[in-house]
Design a protein that fits this description.
Number of domains: 3
Number of helices: 19
CATH topology of the largest domain: D-amino Acid Aminotransferase, Chain A, domain 1
Low-confidence stretches: none
Largest sheet: 7 strands, mixed
Number of strands: 22
Shape: globular
Structural class: alpha+beta
Distance between the termini: 52 Å
CATH superfamily of the largest domain: DNA ligase/mRNA capping enzyme
Amino acid sequence: MKDFALLINTLDSTNKTNAKVEAMVSYLQIANSSDRLWFLALFTGKRPKRPVNTNLLKQWALELTQLPEWLFVESYASVGDLGETLSLILPNAEQTIEKSLTQWMAELIALRDLTEEEKKAYVLESWKGLNHLERFIFNKLIGGSFRIGVSKKLLINAISKYSGIDTNILMHSIMGKWKIEEEDFENLIQGTNINPDDSKPYPFCLAFPLEKDLEDLGERQNWQAEYKWDGIRGQFIKRNEEIFIWSRGEELVTEQFPEVVSALNQMNGNFVIDGEILVVKDNKVLNFNELQKRLNRKTIPKKMLDELPVKIFVYDILEFEERDLREKPLSERRLLLESLVRNNPTVNILLSEIVETENWEELTEIRESSRENNSEGLMLKEKDSLYHAGRKKGDWWKWKVSPLTIDAVLIYAQKGSGRRSSYYTDYTFGVKNGENIVTIAKAYSGLTDKEIMEVSRFVNKNAIEKFGPVRTVKPELVFEIAFEGIGFSSRHKSGVALRFPRIVRWRRDKTVDEIDDVEEIKKLIK
């Protein structure tokens, strides 16, 4: 546990890629095999369910320290993270507990079946034997909020450097619904059972934003152009009469799209196809907000199935009749995909349209008007490209239209976590609604470190109210907010929701009187 806590602290203390990779490699070199497996599980989001309610953790800490609740609330507001606040207010360790990460995780899992008094005794005893850093990690694990800011690519690179195994093999090996109690770390990363069951997906082939002139790509006829849709990227697997739908986030979402399952069942053969899940009604692709209403539901009411019908636009085939096609050129894969869809027609599975033009100029005109059909722009794929794992520059490009922007005013701020826990980095913005200001978006990125420090000083001087860690501030600072899409939403006071909002720039030249009005913003919705 000490080694794992030091690893997390190191990762949280640097923004340098090489330092993060080296820290993970060093940990893998000293950890035993079962701890390595838990490291992999936790870093890929396979953490066990929370065994203890966080309100109980807070209650037990206050009983132990005898701190008044108001002081705890103030401390929490300053620190911004419950697990870290608890670790800071608790008294120093009275003893040293030496347990492996595996042993800690086994005990936390077993904790779910104990009584509240038994849980309390275990937690108090653990707090006594852990230093501040170890206690912080323990609190995050037991409270179910353990997350680490390491990308899948960075994790794969670290394991590759440790093991010498190719990143593509590793990417495929750790995808899917493997269970920690059934796996061995070495066997898992080596791909010994790369298809342990019929549900196993492939790593997704990803694209880079287009960053060069079109002429530098070469001849137009060497590139396949398609619309870039704002839906859910998915792999649709049919093997041995079983259907599996995986999102790009490695979530098994089969049950959420019964009409797609039915359509796949109607198709003959075994295959893995890649495509986009979209809400399509009256031959029109609706925006992502409509699709979002269908997500994370155990059952989909018939009314919702009728009002928000889902289709998939398919654009690649990765496997057919147990043959891995990823090393075949895109042009060959496309012909096979077209044949599969043509021979198995269904209203819910459609081929992604290839945009045909004679030259780059004509394609540019189509891209500029792509919002008219609710797409984000175009995808450019070299016709000879393979279906590689992750991103590889040069083969696939996403050529998005310029983002939409609005001017909004900062109205709420909250401190960040980790290296940014001393500064206000999480912002909520508002726009006009008549004489009032209503919230429209949250954003966490786009400012420089210097600007973050300036905003933090402003918040400290101009905070009006406190709501736990959140501060209400005078509506004075205006920012330009960019976003990819917009739709109506009953969950926001403004009545709209922005897709991927982020800060473009601080508009020091504007006052709150010049921010956008929500009624004008609604006119952007197609």
